[in-house]
Fold each of these.
Amino acid sequence: MTGEPRVRTVRGDVAPSSLEVCDAHDHLFFASRQLAGQELDDAAAAGAELRAFAAAGGRTVVQWTPFGLNRRAADLAALSEATGVHVVAATGFHRAEHYPADVLDRVSDRLAEIFVADLLDGIPAGDDPDAERTGPRAGLIKVAGGFHVVDRHARWTMVAAAQAHQETGAPIAVHLELGTAAREVADLLCGELAVPPSRVILGHLNRNPDLRVLREVADTGVFLGFDGPSRANHATDWRVTDLLFELATSGHTGQLLLGGDTTTAAARLSSGGGPGIPYLLTTLRPRLVRALGEDVVQAMLVSNPARAFAARWRR
């Protein structure tokens, strides 16, 4: 891997500074049997979300939808072109319960190979790993931990993610189940599997607001993702400001990331629900600026994502 770090978007590689204001964790398309009837599968609605985000000052959305969950990669590229918003797509694999057994069987012995192909050659049509790779290239690897543990499935996907990272340099983003097992995931990826902490992003940390654990995880050097700010039932809105303040004043400002994590049609503003992707900038950002200051919020939305999602790609 050579050259300057670049962020791999669905319209090609760009300089990290091009990201500007970034929603570091969201979904324009997503479909899981765990959320039947709430699929994000409407390109027009996704476009409306992107335009509203852009109108609020947003310039980049990182989609964490992994393999097999309706990535719609070709549509991502078209929407990015139409709206002028950078979009980063993901490869990777979610918790086992999101997939039918036949999908798990089909990829069981070649997960790392699929990740590498998505990152270097392009996402295949219809998300079929054996189809022609006509879509844009993925720019990150998304995997998932178990509830309070790194279970067998999580370890399998994280070993594959680490292998793909070593081959490509891609960052690894981790869904933490209800925000748990953060330290265990960091220890596995950055310890046993030797992934540099600067290449690891832990998501959903706001869902388990244990400040002692957060400080321990922050000390490992990984990026810390706080996302889904509208979900009061996940202890977010009323605690996230305090958590971010404590981490920033403890010297971890440079590791903090913010995202919206819109995963259902009911959470999409353009479909008559809400608050949608724009909420991150229209509501949460001014609240955080008042509490933390402009410099801290600028780091979370601009300078930190530029480092977190950049890589020295093999090709």
Amino acid sequence: MDVDFLKNILEGVKMGNIEIEDALKELKILPFEDLGYAKIDHHRSIRNGYPEVIYCEGKTDEHILGIIEKMSQKNCNILGTRVKKETYEKIKKIYPNCKYEELGRIIKIQNKPIENIGKGNIVVVTGGTSDIPVAEEAYHTAHFLGNNVKKLYDVGVAGIHRLLNNKELLFDARVIIAVAGMEGALASVVGGLVDVPVIAVPTSVGYGANFNGLSALLTMLNSCASGISVVNIDNGFGAGYLASMINKL
């Protein structure tokens, strides 16, 4: 549900095309619709500018399908994260317009045109190839929320000339998402080159002392470069969402 949906209801009542009782049936599910196992926040796009996103990990396929059904009834564009391919196959049978981004484990159901709300480019940068799945989650999240998004993968500090050879892409960005595991130094390097916000995403990529991403997280939190914010380990979605909020300001 979005602002246009509410405007259409109010306009319909004003013009006499919608009965007051019918309008009340639609409005009474605000601010959420209780399915028993989930409370769908139909009001979120009005408050935050984006509809609720379905975090699918840990949910049953039946629950995911139930949430999608209710959101589709409101003509929402639907984004789901951490989706297993087997779950996508079940969704695809019911919603043929469902798209699956396998690397990022993202499903997208576009029920209406996506408005480009971004003021500039978001650039997603990775330290290595192993960081790409998390980067893809960030990329597709930001793109689905209405932004121009560009990729710059495998340009970590072990071969920093790869990053410097693409500095024009960095300088043209309005927001940068830096995704890296191991020691997580990429965000500091990027932050020292640009005059725009850098969102650092630590990944769980690395050997034993990486502690499943903790070393990269601590490096990013302790960065000496200014203008860096840090999301949780492997949280590509959070980075893409935050970048979109910044880019539409």
Amino acid sequence: MRRLLLVLAVVTVGLAGLMTVATAAGRIGGDAATPTLLAPKATVRYEPAAGAGGVNPAAPVAVTVADGTLDTVDLLNEAGARVSGALNADRTTWTASESLGYDRTYTWRGIATGSDGRKVPVEGSFATVKPSEKVRGTLNIGDGRTVGIAAPIQIQFNGHVRDRAAAERALAVTTSVPTEGAWGWLPDENGGSRVHWRPKEYWKPNTRVTVTAKLYGVAYGDGRYGAADVTSTFTIGRAQIVKADVNSFRMVVMRNGRQVASYPASYGLGSDPNRNTRSGIHVVSEKFTDKRMISEQYGYDVMEKWAVRISNNGEFIHANPASSGAQGSSNVTHGCVNLSLENARAYYDTALYGDPVEVTGTPIALSAKDGDIWDWTLSWQQWKGLSAL
């Protein structure tokens, strides 16, 4: 009996010991604090990368922080002036709002604070590309002008553009009236490349047109880069078309579909191919109250009144008293359209840059050899083939 009690006592003590250990183990596990996770440190990323060289000055410029916020950010040029820019609403990204300069070094300065509360510097620098040449583009139609319904938009570059596709992608034309059109690259002229935008058909009167050429920073190839953006907004005027049938010996002016004038005229001498007025759609490009006209081939040097240029091969609509006896009855000129003083002045006063002059009835066609604006001598498919895209 005593032996049985002794065994039970040992078992009871053993169970108590196990319960004590279990309770102690539970107490240790329950009271221990959960280890705290460390908050992440701020990570700053730069666009372009810090230390980069040859950066395009028109490329996006930004600094972004992950796991933190930007306290202060400055991007400084070599003179210590700040580049314009702004933080986003949650202060995680600063973006430059102005283009940078060519061949310059820019330095970041600022502070970011991480989620861990620690400060991280915004620092580093990068350098922009140094062009071998900065090429400028010039638009032919200025802001606020009113032009005729055949007016092409021209951008004349003062240097050669090898990568025409890159340049063309930077160009845009928007219109108040839906207008189909396309850019076409013409042979280099005046020491540089040139590109025209032509509508498929004549412009609709009163169309408002905006040209935007984002050329700054565009790489043209051979180390050349765009010097500046250019833009213009202008208006298409009334629909004035000159109908010039050389065999009628008259020049008819149509305005908005109605004939407003019919002048006796003399065109180029038909028996001399060099003196034929070229057939095709000419475009008024400039006009002069007085214009000196010289030809070494035909030996004349005269000053003519009310001269409206319709091509760069020497063709004008102008007054010429010397041919007054032929005006309305025969063609005797050196290729120009001759009118009386009174009629030439009347037409001169109505002519706008971009007005079409449709010459018909001669065997020699207007072509690229005749100078600047021969856009309308090509079919629409031929014109679209001049695009670089």
